[in-house]
Specification:
Layout (H helix, E strand, L loop, with lengths): L15 H16 L13 E13 L4 E12 L5 E6 L3 E7 L8 E3 L8 E6 L6 E7 L7 E4 L11 E4 L19 E9 L5 E4 L12 E11 L5 E4 L2 E4 L4 E5 L1 H10 L3 H12 L7 E5 L8 E2 L4 E4 L12 H8 L7 E3 L6 H19 L1 H22 L23 H18 L1 H14 L3 E3 L1 H13 L3 H7 L1 H6 L13 H16 L12 H9 L7 H11 L7 H13 L6 H10 L3 H11 L3 H14 L5 H11 L1
Parallel strand pairs: 1-10, 15-16, 16-18, 19-20
Antiparallel strand pairs: 1-2, 2-7, 3-6, 4-7, 5-6, 8-9, 9-13, 10-12, 11-13, 14-15, 17-18
Length: about 625
Amino acid sequence: MKKLLLFIPIILFACNQDKKKSNTTETAKAIEIKDPHSFSDPSNCVVTHLDLKLNVDFKTQILKGEATWTINKIGKIDEIIFDAKGLKIEKITLDDDIKNAFFALGDEEPFMGQPLSVDIKPTTKKIHIFYSTSKNAPALQWLNPNQTAGKKFPYLFTQSEAILARTWIPCQDSPSIRFTYNADITVPKELLALMSAENPQKKNDSGIYHFEQKHAIPSYLMALAVGDIAFKAIDNRTGVYAEPSVLGKAAYEFADMGKMVTAAEKIYGDYHWGRYDVLVLPPSFPFGGMENPMLTFATPTVIAGDRSLVSLIAHELAHSWSGNLVTNATWNDFWLNEGFTVYFERRIVEQLYGKEEVQMQEVLGYKDLKGSIDEMGETNPDTRLKVDFTNRDPDLGVSDIAYEKGFFFLKNIENAVGREKFDAFLKEYFNSHAFTSMDNDGFLAYLNDNLIKNDESLKDKINSYAWVYQPGLPKDFTLPISETFNKIDSLQKQLMASQNPKGLNKEIKSTNEKLYFIRTIPASADLKLITALDQEFGFTDSGNSEIQCVWYTLAINRNYKVAYPEMKNFLINVGRRKFLLPIYKALIETPEGKKLANEIYKEARPNYHSVAYNTLDEMLK
């Protein structure tokens, strides 16, 4: 998942025998792990395959159907436990028996939902769960036609990460548990259905779509989208899905997708998921992207018209190795997912767009990380890579800590051993752990056994303990440097001396440069200078969402009300949480701003996904 967007921007086994081996390894690994965010107990009974049949009803905004789970019993037990939240369980049957099996839903727990316990027999192989979702299921966002680009048809999309899959499928909702799946989805005939699986490229006449995902994935990678969607190929294995009116712009923006796949393969080996496609969702999607296998879900906010924000695609593509192939065992190990992916993303970007581009990203990433640490407090245990979100919503772990501190730890390892050696290490790591889950301690043990190898000097350079188990940043952390940004610092000094920004837009051109420039405008800059800067660069009316976010935040802090109408329009029409939080946070700093924030939020909230409005409800209450 791409929470942070910086700019410009499994390995499958070859035969059925190898697939069986990988699934067996994964099951064995799952037995060892107790996930604090799942009621399931895979040490006794674990799912291995899902056959899903669902009917999508836009009138009631409910999914209804049957989830058939193939199970593997490890111990002599008489029950299996699933995770469920807000689901209406109509009946459950076992194997070919049409008689109802006994089941019970336990007490509701905050953000976790309920355990669904099903009595099973010694011979039970399959469990058929007949159910429907609630109208307000947090994973599901139902959009009316006016909330789409085309304005003619409704739209549905899911967001299962971190623990929201249980709100639309009864499942063992832990990243340590993997399964293959088939699905039959029935939708209105004028709409197309897509999933995190092998997908159709055009609508059919029946409105019934069949999907297969042959590679075992965790529940958070279950995904469904239904809407007036069209497809355009980029090359023979990549392409873009979007609403028809958006498709051309999206295909232009993501023209380098094929090159990104090729660049990624040069670093860590073949891409074996088959196709890599991207679905551009309506603007209410709460994240930059979601790495659903074979079909990345992406925000339309990256369509800037100049391909300046498409490192998002490099990030989600990188998840095909880090996250989708080797998965964090629990949400307390989240940095193994996102820290690795930011590192890999920047390696892809460097191959395609050059080293200086990555150096700019590193500086911007560090500033985001330092800001988060300062806000949370340097001694806050949540600034460690190894965090503990037991009894807390794991969505709180989606922060710069997992992304950027994780990246800088891996960059520190690269610096200590050299890129060539580190690349070989990571390539073998992905290969040897393909289709399994990895926890923090397991990775550090693998690092020690296969890279450090009892070299005390190297161990001190890498300093895993300080990076992973201590809060804040290690004392010997080296600040990233960008020569491009150093030049902008000089321009800033000249600007403050002259108070005249004329001609600066010819010196400061790229998205990264403008973003850095805005963020480093000193607090001493008065309203007259802010106005002149807006006239020079046109920041208020920028079509670049990243620039809009930082500029509107600055405008609020400097009381530059000229930007407020466009800021309001931005908040109403964009649902990406990364952008919403800093703008609303700036507004509520003053009584006048808080009043405006609540007025805007009242109008905007229906356009937001639950992932966004659950955070904002708490902030604005």
